[in-house]
Amino acid sequence: MNHHANRIYLDYNATTPLAPEVAAAMRPYLFEGFGNPSSGHWAGRPAREAVEAARSKVAALLSCEASRIVFTSGGTEANNHAIKGVFFARRAASHPPHVIASRIEHPAVLEPCRFLQRLGAEVTLLPVDGTGLVDPDAVRHAIRPGTLLISIMHANNEVGTIEPIAEIAAIARERGVMFHTDAAQTVGKVPVDVGELSVDLVSVAGHKLYGPKGVGALYVREGVELEPLLHGAGHESGRRASTENVLGIVGLGAACEVAQRWIGDTSVKEHRDDFWGRLSDKLGDRAVLNGHPERRLPNTLNVSFRGLRGGDILARIPQIAASTGSACHTESAHPSPVLEAMGVPADVALGAIRFSLGRTTTRDEIDYVVEQLGQVLGA
Ligand SMILES: Cc1ncc(COP(=O)(O)O)c(C=O)c1O
């Protein structure tokens, strides 16, 4: 795909296009399926059925019961709901309330934590090692009597490092602390089984798994007390007021169904490894891999080009869509805070480009990108 004028998209961690099956599933809800799911008449009933069918599909991908899924407006809202929801439900029980997260969380976790700090919570941001891993022992040592919540992402969006979530969640469970994981980057790419991970709260973002933008989900384990973010009518069993985004929810359900077929597919990882192998052959130690060499999202390749600026390289190959750092900070001349937290020296961090591959990425596209990078770098 994207062979138009050699335009190549390698920014699938920023967002993905709709899978064709997703677009097809959504189409009727743009038109005749317009009813309000809360209406009991002929127009409302099919919309309710569609929302509930989608809930079952999201639940199937996460291996949980459908009733555990709350639909949200995206990954950001799911994170806000989890973090603020636990805080407002449980803060009275702890003096002062304390939250633990990692330094490499997405702003959609870091900023809600900062907000809670303004409300009197204490926040511990744990360091990571040079590969981006959080040490479960550091989590254990950070827990105190007032700790309400631990939030550690499943995989990092910039470097792709996959955190030891099951281990950390077991520690949280043992100490009676709620555990949330932002799985925006893993759902649809690697298996996410909420029971196996033994987590309390999991955030999902539709547009990262070939579903629509503006829709997501929060898994809430049975018995977890959460204050809603949106108070109003009783939608989502009182957990999130507002008439359901039927179109988006149907798309998210379809995306989760399609994703089941892709989990275990190895072609994306093969292309990614081939890409890195050829880049490092061409550039030697001028190209540095950022992130964990193995415990990493199968589609993600974050490379620093030593002595250069990632943004300058991308400016010379504008037909190739990739990013420096995350999509949120493309204009910035500062090193990525994620790479900084990993201890990557500033001059190396400034040379970083994140390539993130997708289901339709081809060998030809990788060949072309390697050749273009070689030209820019004079190799
Ligand atoms: C790890 C992570 N969390 C949260 C988000 C936010 O999701 P959304 O854009 O659906 O709000 C993103 C992507 O933008 C992400 O990569």
Task: Provide a brief overview of the structure.
The chain has about 375 residues and is an alpha/beta fold.
Ions, cofactors and other ligands present here are:
pyridoxal-5'-phosphate
Shape: globular
Largest sheet: 7 strands, mixed
CATH topology of the largest domain: Aspartate Aminotransferase, domain 2
The SSE order reads: EHHEHEHEHEHEHEEHHHEEHEHHEH
Strand element count: 12
The number of domains: 2
Alpha-carbon Rg, integer:
21 Å
Topology:
Blueprint: E1 8-9, H1 20-26, H2 44-62, E2 69-72, H3 75-90, E3 98-102, H4 107-118, E4 122-126, H5 136-142, E5 147-151, H6 165-174, E6 178-182, H7 194-197, E7 201-205, E8 216-220, H8 235-238, H9 246-262, H10 267-283, E9 287-290, E10 300-305, H11 310-316, E11 320-321, H12 337-341, H13 346-349, E12 352-356, H14 363-376
Parallel strand pairs: 1-11, 3-4, 3-5, 5-6, 6-7
Antiparallel strand pairs: 2-8, 7-8, 9-10, 10-12
Helix pairs in contact: 1-9, 2-9, 3-4, 5-6, 10-14
The structure holds pyridoxal-5'-phosphate.
